[in-house]
Amino acid sequence: MKSWPEMKLSEGARDFIDDAALTALIENARPDPVRVREILAKSLSKQALTVAETAVLLAADSPDLVEEIFSTARELKQTVYGNRIVLFAPLYIGSMCVNDCTYCAFRRSNDGAVRRTLSLEDVREQTLALERVGHKRLILVYGEHAEYDADFIAATVRKVYETKEDHGEIRRVNINAAPLDAEGYRKVKDAGIGTYQIFQETYHHETYRRVHPGKTRKGNYLYRQDGLSRAFEAGCDDVGIGALFGLYDWRFEVLGLVSHALYLQQRYGVGPHTISFPRLQPAHGAVTKTEHLVSDEEFKRVIAILRLAVPYTGLILTARERAELRREVMSFGVSQIDAGSRIELGGYTEVGDAQVMEKEQFSLGDIRSLDEVMRELIQDGYVPSFCTACYRLGRTGEHFMEFAIPGFIKRYCTPNALSTLKEYLVDYASSETKAAGEALIRDELARFEEGEMKNKLVGRLLAIEAEGKRDLYF
Ligand code: SAM
Ligand code: SF4
After folding, report:
1. Is 201 in the pocket of ligand 1 (CB under 6 A)?
2. How high is the pLDDT of residue 353?
3. 277 and 411 in one domain?
4. Are residues 290 and 436 in the same domain?
5. For residue 404, what pLDDT is reported?
6. Rounded to an integer, what distance in angstroms lies between the CA atom of residue 469 and that of residue 474?
7. Which residue's C-alpha comes closest to atom 8 of ligand 2?
8. Are residues 295 and 410 both part of a single domain?
9. How is 399-410 classified by DSSP, letter by letter?
10. How many independent structural domains does the chain possess?
11. Which of 67, 232, 304, 305 could form a disulfide with 73 if both were Cys (CB 3.0 to 4.6 A apart)?
């Protein structure tokens, strides 16, 4: 049995969430249309908003102002990110857990949960199944357990990277797991991880205590809040924050996320790379109150306002949400989605065991295949991307911020998106998706500024098609 490392905080850690202050901002914010428009103009100039400015947007609930917020978010998303959507898949590694989060099927008091940990051979098989449909980016997900320590996480990450077959390979592995200590982050960074994600779940202290009952590791609010600061201190400058919407007032959680992003930015000169905003889903054995569940309309406001508040932070929408809603909110600023996802352990090769599926961590709203999602994205005018260039070229953290600002994303990301799309079309797509994708590439090329970059890109697309070249990026 492995032992736990001591729960040591980062140097100078402090709890940056003041519940009373955030609540007062929510209660006192006045959505005067002139003020709202000033704030929208600030967002459009690609400046991050303050927590107080975000609170004003959250208070704006008249249909006209809400529509202005949506259309400004659409415009901002288009100018910063263009029409790319990055695709990934989750891979659940282990469902053992020492915590008792009331909302999660993996909670330790759920006697009906299926407890399983993938062996390294299982990890290889699941990875092959994902590669065979065309995935290039994964997020590995772990319960919190002494067995899932940094050495174990690093070993599973290495296994994913070394699993290759024909043109199939995973080029970026992100992590969603319990917070580590500085040494742990160094180990997983050595294994080549991309983003390390930790969701605070709820920033509201009292709710946090209620949904994490008992004396558990996760029950320590500050240790979790400080988790990504320790990552920065250990040299992991690519981190993802998140909140589980539905546990407490959605406005409070948005302010919590923005406070967290600004805190990291001020302390380390770099904000989070991504923000996730899962909505609470029914889960086997979970006990959840329903008073704070977030409606579709409110959820759309969450996404649009986050887009406006943190213009350069990627926003991740997961398959917990239904396909139609995913389609609608994509235009507000979501930059990454998962597709073809299975969240039952071993689900990419052992599909169909109804009993196991019923006991999965929570229910998914979108279970379409990667090919179907790709086709729909293309038909809606998005460029699906499997690009992993920035992280592999060391463009993370501060360097990413330098590049991300003006026009970089359009200049480099669009060509990289098109070449990874081309690879997908040649290697994995159905004939219908291939035809739609080729037409999209032609349209995008027609719009691309003439010059050296375009010539290089056209050469690369040809090399992928005719010479079997792969993994070419700017
Ligand atoms: N055990 C790690 C932790 O708690 O951070 C990582 C894995 S946990 C399975 C990943 C995320 O799933 C949690 O952070 C939580 O936000 C989300 N989650 C848990 N139960 C959920 C539910 N019923 N509906 C939607 N998301 C849920
Ligand atoms: Fe364990 Fe994470 Fe689920 Fe909580 S959310 S019970 S820590 S797996």
Report:
1. yes
2. 52
3. no
4. no
5. 56
6. 15
7. 143
8. no
9. HHHHHHTTTHII
10. 2
11. 304
Domain extent for 304: 77-392
Ligand 1 pocket check for 200: Cβ under 6 Å: no
pTM: 0.95
Cα–Cα–Cα angle for 145, 146, 147, nearest 5°?
A: 90
Cβ atoms of 429 and 371 within 8 Å: the answer is yes
Last residue of a domain, one of 392, 427, 454: 392
**Residue 286: CB within 6 Å of ligand 1?**
yes
Residue 163 φ/ψ, nearest 5 degrees: -85, 110
Q: Does one domain contain both 187 and 208? A: yes
Residue 267 lies in a domain: yes
> What is the number of other CB atoms lying within 10 angstroms of the CB of residue 398?
12
Rounded Cα gap, residues 216 and 336, in angstroms:
32
Tell me which residues of the chain have a pLDDT lower than 70. Answer: 351-363, 396-410
What single letter denotes the amino acid at residue 73?
A: A
Q: Which two tokens stand for residue 31?
A: 């959505």
Of the candidates 392, 419, 448, which is a domain's last residue?
392
- Looking at the DSSP bridge assignments, the partners of residue 424 are none
Same domain, 457 and 434: yes
Query: What is the per-residue burial (b if ≥16 Cβ within 10 Å, else e) of 127-160?
Result: bebbbebbbbbbbbbbbbbeebbbebbbebbbbb
The bound ligand whose nearest atom lies closest to the alpha carbon of 199 is: 1
